[in-house]
Structure formats: C-alpha cells, structure tokens
Automatic annotation (TrEMBL):
Residues 1156-1301, 1321-1461 are annotated as: Disordered. This is DNA topoisomerase 2. Control of topological states of DNA by transient breakage and subsequent rejoining of DNA strands. Topoisomerase II makes double-strand breaks. Belongs to the type II topoisomerase family. It comes from Gossypium raimondii.
Length: 1461
C-alpha cells in the first residue's frame, strides 16, 4: 500500500491499454464513411436522446413544450427538406413540395417539382450525376465560392448523411431536358446500391423525390416517436413559411394553410397569446426580396425564430443580430428619451423582443454542419436589411417602450432597496453626523434630525444643542444642494452618498407606506438653511426627495419642519437698553422700513445672508425660543402634491412656465404663521428662487446682459476702468461694489467671457483681453487663471453705453447699497451683437450673433421711417458661410459651414470650422477617424494657430472619390446649424417673452431707446440751464464783493447766509441721501460724518463761498461771462437737436469705432499671414493689437465719451509700485486737507446733483472754475457712481493716521506749455494754527530765476490740477489760487534725484501711491527747500495723490473741518 501511494495518478488510457494490442490495432485509418458512422456527432449532431423546450406542431397548432428527440435524426430529415427548398432558388418555377412522414412504416419522403437532377454520366467520375450527388461523399454543386448562391448546401455532405444513416435510401428524379427518369436504391447505410433504372419521361417533366428509412438503431430508437414526428411536422411548416405563397407545401397529402411568412409567424403568436388578455402585437415588414422581418414582444427573455435560405437557425446568428441591433438601438433611444433616468441599454431592449427573420444570404457559413448558428459577417450577406423608420416607430409604439420603463423602474426599486435603512440604535461610518442619543431607540419618535446647509450652519446648530440637549436632537450637514431625485438617473441615485446616508440616518425603507414614524430612527426632519433663495431651493429639494419615494410621510403630522432664522436684524439703544427687531423676509423688512419714515436714523441694520453670519450666542438664543423659529409643514390635500410636482417634474414644463408667468413681485411667505402647507411654500417661497434663477440665466432684451455681466459693467464704469487690472482683483472689486453673492470663480469666468474676442465668441468684446483669455483652439477653456491675466474697458464700450444715459437709469439697491441698474440702454441692442445662451427654470434661450453694422443700418432705416432688412447671423472673423436653410413659424434655421479645399487627388485643406466647433475637438475627431477600423483617412497634418484653422488631410484616391460622392462637408463634419426658434428674453418690464425674429427684438428696442433719447435731451437741457443760473449768481456775487456790497471777511457764516438769501442769490442744495438706517458692512455709508442741519443749509451757498479769494476779480467776471455765452450757445445747439438726430450722431461715432476695430482685425490678420508665410505659427504678435498700459490720450472733441479723469486716472497697483517716490518736505505744517478731484470734476463740482458726466467734460474746456471754490461738492453724492481707485484700503488707512495735504500745496502747480515744464509753488506755510496764509505775489521775473516765481508770460498754462487729482483746499486755508510758476529743478533733499518728470508725466502722475519719504528712491517732482517753522509738536504729514473720485466716499476726511494741532 505504501508503494502504491507513491505512484503517480493514472489516466484512463493507461487502464484501458492491453499489452496484447498490436501497433496496427492501436493506430487505425478509417474511410470517410466509416468515420461518419463511428463519430456521427461531428456531422449530424448528437445521436443521444435530448430533452429540450422547443416549438412543435401538433393538434393543428404550434405548442411550446419540453420534447424528447435525437438531434441527429432531426438533422438527416432537415437535410433532405432543405435540398428541396434549395431547388426553388435553382428553378423559380417550382411550385410544389410534398412531404410524407409515415411513423408506422418508418418511412419519410420529400418531393419537389423543380428541375430534376441531370440524368447523365459525369465524365470525370464515370457515374451518373444522381448517384454522384446522393451516393458519393464530398460532392456538391456549391463549391465555387466565386458564384454567389442563396442555397443551404455548402460542404458536400447534406443528403449523403441521410443516406448513410438510413437502412434504405431511394432517389428518383425526372430530367425533362433529357427526357429521362432515374431511380436508384441505396441500402445498408450507403454500403450497397442497385444499378440505376433509367426510363423515358415527357419533355418538361421535372421532379425529384427522396424516400428514406432512418436507421433507428443508430439513434437508439425502435420507432419514430411522437415528439420527433411533431418536430418534423413543425419543420415542414417552417418551409411553408419561408417559401411563401409561390410554393404549395403538402404534408401527408394535406396542403398546409400557410401562404406567407406572416401566416407562419401568426402560428406562434396565436399560441403565445392564448393565456393573455390581449393578443401579442405583430409588426411585419418585407424589407426587400431577400429579407422579411416580424417583431413582437417577449417577457424578459429574447426569443427568435430565424431562417437562412430555409435553414432553421435555431440559435440565431449574425443575421438576427443585424436586424435586432437596429430595433434595439431605436427602442433604447425612445425609452431613454421618454425617461432619461431609465438608463436602458440595447441588450435590455433585446430581452423584451421576439424577432422573426427570413433571409436569403449569399454563400452562408455556419458554426457547424448542424447549421444552428449563422457566422457569416454582415458585410458578406450580399444584401442589406435597413429597417424603415415607420417600421421602427410601430415597434416602439407596440408596448415595448412601456414594458421597458416598467422593467427599469422595477430594477431601480430593487437596487434602491439594497440601501434601505433600519431602525437601529446606533449608526457608524457616516462622516459629520452628530446622532441623537435616543435615535433608533424606544423614544425615537421624539427625536429630530436637523439638516443644515453646510458645515458652518452645523456649527450654529451644535451651539443650539447646548440649549435643547443632544438626547433628542441630531445634526447632519448637507453638502450644498440635494439631488433632484425626480429627474435623477438610477446610477445617480445609487452613487449619491447623501441620499444613501439620509436613508440610513432616518431608517427609511424603499416604497414603504408610512402611517406613523414609529419604524423610523427619527420622528421629525428639521430643515435649517439660509434665508436666501438658494436656501429655499434646498428646502424644496428635500421635500421633493421625500415626496418622490415616501409621499405618505409628508402626510404624517409634524414629520417635516423647518427652522427659520432672521435675514435682517434691526437694533437701536433706548435708555441704554438695546432693542432688537428680527425680519424673516425682505418684503417684510421693506414694509417696516417704509413705515419708519424719518425715524429710521436711529436703527442699525445687519443683513444675515447665511447661517454662518449668526454667532454662537445668537444660535443659542434661537434655540431657547425654538417654538418661535420652528415652522411645521402640513399636508392639506392633493394640491400639495401637485404643487411639488409642478416645481420639480420635467413633465410639467408648460405648467411651470405658466406658474412663473403669474408671479407677482412682492410675493412672500408669512412666517408669523405656525403651520405652512406645501403648496404655499412652493407658490410663495420657492417661486422666488425660480424667478431669481431665471433672471440669472436669461438676458434682458434691452442691454443683452445677464445680472452678473451687468454688475461687471457697472463696476467697470464706476471705477472708470480704463487702466488694466488683474481679473482676480477686479472680481473682488465687483463683489464689493455690486452686492455679488455667488462664487468668485463664477464671476471671474464671466469677466473672461466678456473679454474674449476669438471667432465664435463676442462680436464686440466689452472688456479688453490682456493675456491668455482663451482661443478658438479650445473655445475659451484654455484661458489662464484669473490671477495671471489683466483686463479693462475697451474704447468702444463707452460708445455703446453712453455716459449721457447713466443718470437716467433705474439703479437698484441691495443691502442698503446702490448697485447696477435694472438694465442699461446701449445705442444698439447688444443681445443681437454678441448673442446669448442660457437655461433657467422653465425656459432656455439661444440667440445667434449678428453683424453690428447690419443692426446700425436697420436702426437708421427705422429712424427714417423705412422698413427693416432681414438680418442673418454673423460672427466676427468667421470665413465660412452661413446659409438660410429652413423657415418655420417658430423660427429660421441656418446652416453654418466651414471651408474645405481640394489640393490634389489625395489631399484636402481645411481652413475654417463651423462656429463653436473648436480646433482641438476637430483634431481629436480626425484622430478618431484614423484609428477606426474603417478609416477613410491615411494621415493629417495641423498648421493651425490660436487665430486660424489649417488642417491638411491625406487620403487614397479611392477614398477621396467616395468622400466627394458623399459630400466633403458631411463626411468631415464641417457643418452645424443654428436656429432662431428659441429666442427668449426679458423685456423692459422684466417679463419673459419669446421673439420670433431678430427684427422683432430690434423693433421693440427701437421704441424704448427713442424714449430715452428724449429723456436724455430734456435732462441735458435742464442741467445746462442750471449751469447758466449758477454762472449768473457767481458773476453777481463777485461783482458785489469787488464793489463792497457784500463783505465776506471777518463775518459769521450765519449772517453771510442770511444776506445772500436777502439779496436773492439762488441756493443750490447739495444732493443728500434719503434718510437711511445705518447698515452693517455698507461701503456707501461706512464712516460718513453726520452733518448738522445748519451745515446742510450752509452748504447751499458753498458754490459761492468756497471760491478762492484769487477768483474775486474783474478778470474772473469777464471769464465767467465768456463761458456763459458759450454755454448759452450750447443750449441753443442742444435745443435744435431731436432725439433722432442725437441717436444718429451716436451711430456715426459708433461706426467710426467699428471701422477702427475692423482695421485692427485686418492688421492682425496681415501680421498673422506674414508670420505663417515665414513658416512659423503666428504667436502673440498676431493677436489683435491691445491697448497699452498707458493708452494714448484721446481728444475730447473727438471722443466725448472719454473724460479727462479717464485720461489721467490711476494706473494699476503694479504700476503704482514701480512709480518713483517723491520726497516730502519734512515739517511742513498744514491743516488736514480733503483731496481734490481732477479737473473733469472741478469744472462745476457744485452741480453734481444735477450734472451728468458728459456735461462736465464739455464744460471742462471753459476752465470756469480753476479756483478751489467747489470743495463743498465733495460732501455731496455723485449722481453717477464715481470711478474706482487703486488701493483704496491702503489710502484710507493712511488718512486716518496722518493729516493730508495736497501735492499742489507741497510742490506747487505744474504748468506745461510749449514743451517746457514749470512748477507753481505755493507760499511757505506760516506757523499759525489752522493753516498757512498765502504769500504776496512777487513781481514777475524770467522763469529761469529759481526764487522769483511769477506767471509765465505769454504761455497758456495747464495746471497740475488738470493733470493730477490733488487734494482740495481746506475751508478757510487761505491758499492763493494765483497761478504762480517756476522752472523745475533738482531736489536738494536727494542729490540722486535727476528729474524724471517726463517719465512720470507720460505714465500719468496721478497713478502714484502714497508719497512717502525714502532717501534711496528717485524723486519725481521736487522743490527747493525753504525756511520752515520748527518741527516741534507737528504731526507727521502724508502726501497723497488722489487718482479717483471714489476716495471721497471711503476716506474719513470728506468734511471740511480743520485739524487742530
């Protein structure tokens, strides 16, 4: 035994081997006949009995049941039957097949009346042809594969196999052509044969009959069993169905009642419909002479009945796949279109189909001799079966789509059950969950789960838990907005961690009906979100989540609750006690605010935009009064469910549109009510989010801007954004000054989008791209990070959005902050110029770009009373074609085509792509074609750059010809379409409206814009007339002072005001803000000094009293009179203008800018072409020329829209850092000064209340207020938002530390004339407190004399105040306004200070930051030191160059009080 255990494993061959066997006995050679009999399964299949569920024909019907049969026996019968059917292909006149199955006699015969077998001796084989093909193996007429045949025979076995497995096999045939009959009998498995008997027959008599007796012993059978006979009968019916009405098929002398393939299919469907309430559908189609298809429904498992050349392919094959794939793909798309969440695949569809196919295929190939599966490739079928659209539509409507939707829903529900929760005591593995201690226990119904909006809100809730305890309260933070489960795909639901976690935390079970909460881990679900629109949306999504899966839970009392927090708090101190009011909606707060009237001043307001604004103590305070803050949702009926579906179901799109159309401004939910029904929440709170979402997504018809874009443009105008700044910095400015409440990244993307100028983006970019803002290579996705790129306003922007209109707009107010207007009024409708695309709640919008010149031309036509010309899409820089291809009532469709040229017989050149088909995407498309199996491209080369497209594609001549036949545009995907059928916009009233044509948009815009030109004309006239009145008063005042009628000096201000009133001088009240409550974080109110009532009245005459002493001269009177005459002339000119002429003038100026833009494009194109000609790809030089950091100054006469402030406004912070510092004259005393505005504002600063910016620019030419008598204006608020400044925070901080004096006070005034540069230096300061007195003017000496300062004779002086923005004189400072000049020279404070004034001037001196002492830096503007008072007890002085008007609003030195030392 031990020895045996060590032996290796023995095979059965070793066991069966006998030592006595000889080599000859071991290795044998068999004849083919012997091999077939020895190994029959190779040829006819198994000879053992099988049990299989098959269709059989019995009792005059098809029956699907389990049968016992021998596949080999069935196969030898089928071979003879298929031979008979094949004869129909050889002889189309054949019209009869007769089959006899005699089970008792074990006899089967098959007869057909097609052409008989030729009764003739084969010259090579020396036997008769019938004997050759029925009695000799490997003989066939199907060996020539060059001949396409649609018969079943192929390998030369066929009927011989039947002969071999029969005890008797008789072949009879009549050859009418040779008039011979032939009969021969084979016996003993084709082992013996008789001599053929040949007799005569009639001419034209043709038939063949095969009779055989199966050798049942070889199939382990004794007789033909019933199951086998039933299967054979069914096979005869198969033949009748395949051959159709042209062949009469008889079985046992009785004709089969199947005359077509559809009749045959009906046998199956009738039998399958027996136990169904409705019969199965049948959709049949005879596609062509070779293909017949019928489709019905199956229950979860694919079924097929198919034939190839009358051979029953019971396992299908490539022909079935060919047909089924077409049906499956079509139905799959139909199902997924109907329900995008179904996520049905083609194989899912296949499982619901029952397909019947009857095909004739050239030279078919099968997997084996049993021919159960067709393996021939589809390309070799010899014919096509392309199912028509109508047939596929009928299949989709047959019920298969509904079946698949039900199946998908069932499958999804089954999968979701896997994620069900349970009522367990504790849960582990859910991050950030603070579970209630009693959750999942016997007191779980008393527990409340608080769902918060983010982690910061969770912190507030956790602070509140210290009040209510953790036993019955759990907290779980949501990561933003929950998925809309009603429209989510199964994959999304299964992969959404938050939904799975909520089910686990609450213990929810899929599809369970809840009547109470006892089976849940929590009895209440509390939603705690921000009080803004997005917070309302999160509440709605949570309600939608529960309603979609567990609608019964919403009916359970107090299950769903919300926790509300104030959005606004108003506080004030009364008798040293703080009084607090809370408001939960903005309309509620607005109503309270209006009710206060003038009593609002004592209240301080704080806005709580998010839960994160509240402090921990405030959170505890909320939870102490939890009953007040907790509101319960209640179910009042089906209308609540309908309301939820209305808001979140895609099936309710039209109803949702009507819902939004009926929205009334001011709608809000009353939070004083304890109970809130779901329909009220949807209709009064959630609708506010939907409207806000819509407004964010769809632009206004008037200015073509969405709110985010409008905020950006507003801030660019407010900042006077002519010098470039980083996009990241500008986005911060926009957030601060326009109450932008969304992500910084989104804002930066919008800024980048407004600056893009590549083909397919903007026709007119309102911002300038400084850096990589994206190219047509990736459609803008290749833009650099916002911290690397710069931007500023383009010159053309102010020609589209005129300054003259700014004062007429309706500016909005948010959080107590004045922000952008409802809309701007451009000269032409920008929504047509740059197009638009967006998707909001209920609506989407798409508007193509149009040519601004076409729009201008149509505006002119409207102004002239002429009809408009139709406009067509146009994209700047696009070289392809845009053709109108279809017109419908809903809109026009255009085909946009690229450019492809044939270089030679094998090469194509593609030089333009359709709009918004980007170069990189197209390159990937070409690469995918090359790597495909059936690629028609050999190779391609790319020569494209950031501006142009250039591909060269190489093909074979044959593929080139095929591509040209199909169409190069189509083959290379060089066309796309755009339509005007979806042009939705907000009109001027804020209502959503559909426009059918661009002309309709322009027509509506025209009438609105014309009204604004009338308003502009009236406003300008009123302003100019006020200016005239003010000038008259100034002239009177100066004359009265000069004559001594009014004594100004050494008088009380109050007496002086009374005298001015008595003498009839017109008061010009400053524009004061309405009484507003103080708002926390309000930049417009921050740090504003409160003016006393007396000061406010006093300021009415500041336009007179603030004039410098030097202006109280007769020369000034003459100058004012001259200016008055000019102003009167301007008024007269303006009166002659009509609104239409004003518009025409604007159009002319706009067209000049368009000419410049086109010229710049042309130059860029030429430069690009030169670079390409040199062989290199154009680089940065080929880009459109961009403005330099210091743009060339534009003449105001030529460019009325560019103010002097624009010309000399500050450079970027980066430039400021590079600017050389100016040495301070140390110890220079002086009162704290208010920084002066530039000359563009100084002209008539008292008139800011009435003035519009363009007017001040024009009046600046008159030089009517070179005196600093307009300092009072600095207390008033500009009508137009002032331009921004660089680094306001830094300067504001500096002003709080140190007194500030103007640059002009410290270094004098600069006079530029005839190429010389002179500095006007003020007199040295006295030691007297409260400011210094001006020194008496010295006699004029030659300018070269350094110490003798006087006016430059014969030179027209331009003061430093016209180049810089110096600080204004402090009230009562007494500095002389006389223009005293001297030559500039080197500073004695720094010997290295070679004058670099020229450099500083060219880059705008006003761009300099704080001027601080630094001995190591160069001096830009210096003066000679003079005697100064002692420095003891003097405060440090900081020198500030003001570069914008915004500083007035931020700095604390906005009043005129003097700093006392």
């Amino acid at each position: 035994m031990v020895a045996d255990s060590k032996l290796p494993l023995q095979s059965s061959n070793n066991v069966n081997t006998k030592a006595s066997k000889t080599i000859e006995e071991t290795y044998q050679k068999k004849t083919q006949l012997e091999h077939i009999l020895l190994r029959p399964d190779t040829y006819i299949g198994s000879i053992e009995q099988h049990t299989q569920r098959l269709w059989v024909y019995e009792n005059d019907e098809m029956v699907h049941r389990d049968i016992k049969y021998v596949p080999g026996l069935y196969k030898i019968f089928d071979e003879i039957l298929v031979n008979a059917a094949d004869n129909k292909q050889r002889d189309p006149s054949m019209d009869s097949i007769k089959v006899v199955i005699d089970a008792e006699q074990n006899l089967i015969s098959v007869y057909n009346n097609g052409d008989g077998v030729p009764v003739e001796i084969h010259q090579e084989e020396k036997v008769y042809v019938p004997e050759l093909i029925f009695g000799h193996l490997l003989t066939s007429s199907n060996y020539d594969d060059n001949v396409k045949k649609t018969t079943g025979g192929r390998n030369g076995y066929g009927a011989k196999l039947t002969n071999i497995f029969s005890t008797e096999f008789v072949i009879e045939t009549a050859d009418g052509k040779r008039q011979k009959k032939y009969k021969q009998v084979f016996k003993n498995n084709m082992g013996s044969k008789t001599e053929p008997v040949i007799t005569k027959c009639k001419e034209g008599e043709n038939w063949t009959k095969v009779t055989f007796k199966p050798d049942l012993a070889k199939f382990n059978m004794t007789h033909l069993e019933d199951d086998v006979v039933a299967l054979m009968r069914k096979r005869v019916f198969d033949l009748a169905g395949c051959l159709g009405k042209t062949v009469k098929v008889e079985l046992n002398g009785k004709r089969i009642a199947v005359k077509s393939f559809l009749d045959y299919v009906n046998l199956y469907l009738s039998a399958a419909s027996k136990n169904k309430s409705e019969p199965l559908p049948r959709i049949s189609e005879k596609v062509n002479a070779r293909w017949e298809v019928c489709v019905s429904l199956s229950e979860g498992q694919f079924q097929q009945v198919s034939f190839v050349n009358s051979i029953a392919t019971i396992k299908g094959g490539t022909h079935v796949d060919y047909v089924t794939n077409q049906i499956s793909n079509y139905v799959m798309n139909a199902v997924n279109k109907k329900n995008k969440n179904a996520n049905v695949k083609a194989h899912n569809v296949k499982n619901h189909l029952w397909v019947f196919v009857n095909a004739l295929i050239d030279n078919p190939a099968f997997d084996s001799q049993t021919k159960e599966t067709l393996t021939l490739r589809q390309s070799s079928f010899g014919s096509k079966c392309e199912l028509p659209e109508d047939f596929l539509k009928k299949v989709a409507k047959s019920g298969v789509v509904d079946n698949l939707l039900q199946w998908a829903e069932f499958k999804h529900s089954k999968d979701l059950k896997k994620t069900d929760g349970t009522k367990s005591g504790s849960i582990r593995g859910i991050p950030k969950l603070d579970d209630a201690n009693e959750a999942g226990g016997r007191n779980s119904d008393k527990c409340t789960l608080i769902l918060t909006e983010g982690d910061s809100a969770k912190s507030l809730a956790v602070a509140g838990l210290s009040v209510v305890g953790r036993n019955h309260y759990g907290v779980y933070p949501l990561r933003g907005k929950l998925l809309n489960v009603r429209e989510a795909s199964h994959k999304q639901l299964m992969e959404n961690a938050e939904i799975q976690n909520l089910k686990r935390i609450l213990g929810l079970q899929q599809n369970k009906e809840y009547t109470d909460v006892k089976s849940l881990r929590y009895g209440h679900l509390m939603i705690m979100t921000d009080q803004d629109h997005d917070g309302s949306h999160i509440k709605g999504l949570l309600i939608n989540f529960i309603h979609s899966f567990w609608p019964s839970l919403l009916k359970v009392k107090s299950f769903m609750v919300e926790f509300i927090t104030p959005i606004v708090k108003a506080t004030r101190k009364v008798n040293k006690q703080e009084e607090e009011l809370c408001f939960y909606t903005m309309p509620e707060y607005q109503a309270w605010k209006e009710s206060l009237g003038t009593n609002a001043k004592s209240w301080r307001i704080k806005y709580y935009k998010g839960l994160g604004t509240s402090t921990g103590p405030e959170g505890k305070k909320y939870f102490k009064d939890i009953d007040k803050h907790m509101k319960e949702f209640v179910w009042e009926g089906d209308m609540d469910g309908d309301a939820i579906e209305l808001a979140f179901s895609k099936k309710k799109i039209e109803a949702r549109k009507n819902w939004l159309r009926q929205f009334e401004p001011g709608t809000h939910l009353d939070h004083n009510e304890k109970l809130i029904n779901y329909s009220d929440f949807i209709n009064k709170e959630l609708i506010l989010f939907s409207m806000a979402d819509l407004q964010r997504s769809i632009p206004s018809m008037v200015d073509g801007l969405k709110p985010g874009q409008r905020k950006i443009l507003f801030c660019a105008f407010k900042r006077n954004f002519v010098h470039e700044a980083k996009v990241s910095q500008f986005s911060g400015y926009v957030s601060e000054h326009s109450a932008y409440h969304h992500g910084e990244q989104s804002l930066c993307s919008t800024i980048v989008g407004m600056a893009q100028d590549f083909v397919g983006s903007n026709n007119i970019n309102l911002l300038r791209p400084g850096g990589q803002f994206g190219t047509r290579n990736q459609g803008g996705k290749d833009a650099a990070s916002a911290r690397y790129i710069f931007t500023n306003l383009t010159t053309i922007t102010r020609y589209l959005f005129r300054k003259d209109d700014d004062g007429l707009l309706n500016y909005l107010n948010e959080d107590g902050q004045s922000i952008e207007p409802s809309w701007y009024v451009p000269v032409i409708p920008m929504v047509l110029v740059n197009g638009s695309e967006g998707i909001g709640t209920g609506w989407s919008s798409y508007i193509p770009n149009y040519n601004p010149r076409d729009i201008v031309a149509n505006v002119r036509r409207l102004l002239n009373g002429e009809p408009m010309e139709p406009m067509h899409p146009w994209y700047r820089g696009f070289k392809g074609t845009i053709e109108k291809t279809a017109s419908k009532e809903s809109g026009v469709t255009y085909t946009i085509s690229g450019i492809v040229e044939e270089v030679d017989e094998t090469t194509l050149k593609i030089t333009e792509l359709p709009i918004r088909r980007w170069t990189q995407d197209y390159k990937e498309f070409l690469e995918s074609v090359i790597t495909a199996n059936d690629s028609f491209i050999k190779e391609f080369k790319q020569y494209s750059d950031d501006r142009t497209v250039h591909f060269e594609v190489f093909m074979t001549e044959e593929n080139m010809m095929l591509a040209k036949q199909e169409g190069l545009m189509k083959k290379f995907k060089l066309t796309t379409t755009v339509s005007t059928s979806n042009m939705h916009l907000f009109d001027s009233r804020g209502m959503i409206k559909k426009y059918d044509t661009p002309e309709e948009i322009l027509d509506e815009f025209y009438h609105l814009r014309l009204e604004f030109y009338e308003k502009r004309r009236k406003h300008m006239l009123d302003t100019l007339e006020l200016e005239l009145l003010k000038m008259d008063n100034k002239v009177r005042f100066i004359l009265d002072v000069v004559k001594g009628n009014i004594i100004v000096n050494n008088r009380k201000r109050a007496d002086l005001f009374l005298e001015l009133q008595e003498k009839g001088f017109t008061p010009f009240p400053k524009k004061t803000k309405a009484v507003e409550v103080a708002v926390a974080g309000d930049i417009d109110h921050e740090g504003e000094p409160e003016l006393s009532p007396e000061a406010t009245r006093a300021s009415d005459y500041d336009y007179l009293l603030s004039m410098a002493i030097g202006t109280l001269t007769l020369e000034k009177v003459q100058e004012l009179c001259s200016d008055r005459d000019k102003l009167e002339h301007e008024v007269e000119e303006l009166r002659k203008h009509t609104p239409k002429s004003l518009w025409l003038k604007d159009l002319e100026e706009l067209e000049k800018q368009l000419d410049e833009q086109d010229q710049a494009d042309l130059e860029a194109e030429e430069e690009n072409s030169k670079n390409r000609a040199k062989g290199g790809v154009a680089g940065k030089k080929a880009r459109r020329p961009v403005a330099s950091k210091n743009p060339k100054k534009v003449n105001k006469k030529d460019d009325p829209q560019v103010s002097e402030a624009s010309e000399i406004s500050s450079t970027t912070a980066m430039e400021a850092e590079k600017a050389p510092a100016v040495v301070k004259p140390k110890g220079r005393a002086g009162a704290k000064k208010k920084t002066k505005k530039d000359d563009s504002d100084d002209d008539d600063d008292d008139n800011d209340d009435f003035d519009i910016p363009d007017l001040r620019e024009r009046l600046a030419k008159h030089n009517i207020d070179s005196s600093p008598d307009h300092s009072a204006d600095m207390e008033t608020e500009m009508f137009q938002e002032p331009a921004g400044k660089k680094g306001p925070a830094k300067r504001a901080a500096a002003t709080k530390k140190n007194p500030v004096i103007s640059l002009s006070e410290s270094i004098g005034e600069i006079n530029i004339s005839d190429g010389e540069l002179e500095v006007v230096e003020p007199a040295p300061a006295a030691t007297k407190k409260g400011g210094r007195k001006p020194a008496a003017p010295k006699a004029g000496k030659p300018p070269a004399a350094a110490k003798k300062r006087g006016p430059a004779a014969g030179k027209q002086q331009k003061l430093l105040t016209q180049m810089l923005k110096p600080a204004t004189e402090a009230e009562g400072s007494g500095i002389s306004p006389e223009k005293k000049v001297r030559k500039m020279r080197a500073s004695p404070f720094n010997k290295k200070s070679g004058s670099v004034l020229g450099k500083t001037s060219s880059s705008s001196l006003s761009s300099m930051p704080e001027i601080e002492s630094d001995d190591d830096e160069e001096v830009a503007v210096v003066v000679e030191p003079r005697a100064r008072p002692q420095r003891a007890n003097r405060t440090k002085t900081t020198y500030v160059v003001s570069d914008s008007e915004t500083e007035e609003e931020v700095n604390d030195d906005s009043d005129f009080e003097e700093d006392e030392d």
